[in-house]
Predict the structure.
Amino acid sequence: MTFYIVKLLITALLIVLISEISKRSSIAGAILAAIPLVSILAMTWMYIDTKETKAAVDFSQNIVWLIAPSMTLFIVFPLMIKKGFGFYVSMGVAIFLTVCAYYSVIWLLEKFGLRS
């Protein structure tokens, strides 16, 4: 239980830290956010929990397929803001379209037998 709490605290601390840094420098915050810290932490926690590398490798390979649909959020959100839509509407639509993009890629991968 103690390790679970440590994992939560470290992960939350990183998110808060990136948010605070972004207030002072959007480029520094963007660099930190672009580094796949959450993925690195997830793979590290998987390895520490299981002492096996297979789960981390599978996780890493699946992330590769989902990078392209992730870009939907970062393209749609600023475009909608620039077109005059509000923050929450823009974020909601961008998230919705990103989820649709994820499902589309997963469907394609399954259709071509690239994902089990």
